[in-house]
Design goal:
The structure is a homodimer of 300-residue chains. Chain A is α/β, with parallel strands linked by helices. The first copy, chain A, folds into two domains: 98 residues, 60s Ribosomal Protein L30, Chain: A; 178 residues, SPOUT methyltransferase, trefoil knot domain (Alpha/beta knot). In chain A, 40% of the residues lie in helices and 17% in strands. In chain A, the strands form two sheets. In chain A, strands 7-6-5-10-8-11-9 form a seven-stranded parallel sheet, with helices on both faces. Chain A is elongated, with a radius of gyration of 21 Å. In chain A, 49% of the residues are buried. Chains A and B meet through helix 8, helix 11 and helix 13 of A and helix 8, helix 11 and helix 13 of B. Chains A, B: It comes from Arthrobacter gallicola. Chains A, B: GO terms for molecular function: methyltransferase activity.
Amino acid sequence: MFDAGRSPAPLMSNPRADRVKEAAKLAGRSARLKTGRFLAEGPQAVREALLSHRRAADAGRPAVVHEVYATPACLERVPELADLSRGLTLRLATDDVLAAMADTVSPQGIIAVCRIQSPALEDVLARRPRLLAVMCEVRDPGNAGTILRAADSAGADAVILTASSVDIHNPKAVRSTAGSLFHLPVVSGVDFAELASALHDAGITILAADGYGDQDLDELQDASALRRLAPAADAGNSAGPRLEDPTAWLFGNEAQGLSQTELDAADRRVAVPVYGQAESLNVGTAATVCLYASARAQNR
Amino acid sequence: MFDAGRSPAPLMSNPRADRVKEAAKLAGRSARLKTGRFLAEGPQAVREALLSHRRAADAGRPAVVHEVYATPACLERVPELADLSRGLTLRLATDDVLAAMADTVSPQGIIAVCRIQSPALEDVLARRPRLLAVMCEVRDPGNAGTILRAADSAGADAVILTASSVDIHNPKAVRSTAGSLFHLPVVSGVDFAELASALHDAGITILAADGYGDQDLDELQDASALRRLAPAADAGNSAGPRLEDPTAWLFGNEAQGLSQTELDAADRRVAVPVYGQAESLNVGTAATVCLYASARAQNR
């Protein structure tokens, strides 16, 4: 063990060591469920994990990072990572050891074993969120990562995944969030019926992103822009939902879209316009457009 | 050879046949350059290729699809694909043969050998485009596909790739375009200096999507919305570029962003706002937001 502030430490060089095998197992869902841990791989993800760890410590919240494994070369290349690891268990390891732990072909010299944060839905709702992204049976880890990242960029207050969605802590999903996983609360394994009822009770408008929706997103954006930019010109009779109100967006399965149950729970089914020949939007693209439309309406 | 309208044909079953090897080579750039051909894999991509082929035939333009390889099971499952292949060379093959041809693990029973379309930049510009997406050194095939798909959804008139960008005809890029590759002209291998000068001569506003840009995209959208929705409230003194004018968006390299040369060629450097903690936007996400902002301003 190596305390970044103190002294050099022995280099872990055996890719078949028990500790290495334990970490490698975290690529599988069962090991993650059993241990409550997952891996963040590569300098970008580990940096965001460490920053989140610091914020949590400052706020008296539970730890985010359990331990860090890094090659000496990586710490030399990105000294910030050693600084941020101060006070944490930081183990020096060879490239072979890291490769044996990692899901990626090249973990770029650093891996953090992180604690799965599992905030409760009621705690998230108690903080009166204005913008939520809900994934309903989103199955592709890359799409889930893109949506989480878009939610982060749009300033969403939290991301929620229903029970049948992909595990956001699987290595490919973690990677595709590009660090955003550590930026906002992510509630997983939620039962949809309970979620819909809780959102309703909290007075949050539920909008279903649905290619067949009867409400055009552009119309909602126009109405919102008029209220904001030219209140005098706004006839005040726009009946639809208001993008500036607290909103939860539902994003559905890649192939099937939202189920009838999910659509029925929504206050409105909103279509993102397709101007070209594309038949439908990728769910990540649709989520980006919807979340940014809400962010624009809410944040100015 | 099997004419879809006529008679059953022998099944290709030898994965080591010369014809199979020739097709498999199209996963590599040099074979694509030499033959001017590339592969579309899977029912979705092949369907879009075949539809594009029909449109081209109707318009007297060169062929899009050279030949199609499919399993009998696939044609039974999706009869539309056999119908659309009418008049083309359609060869029946085993799953093993298709697997040997394809870059994907599972090509889902159908592959089309397509002709690389290479429209000339001057022809694209002669059609007075209103919205162009330009990739400058975008290197990741998945990102290139996402941008092309977003451009299609936003109704862009063409997509342009500079010489140092990823080859949009590589199998992973083709796959990630989800058929959009066949929906709009894609000009590849363009020299940036020549492009900038041609866009300038054509009177097209060049906007650089740049996280450090001095112009906020939201301000451009607000000004445009005011002109459109409440002309009386628009003071008319908004000085920036107008999203409703013919526009070419520049999207840069994933790691480095746009180069100084590319930034200097732009009329304005526009930042997509980041509301949350995300440090920067994925280039695909940024492109989606920018292109949709233009589409909204131009199409209503």
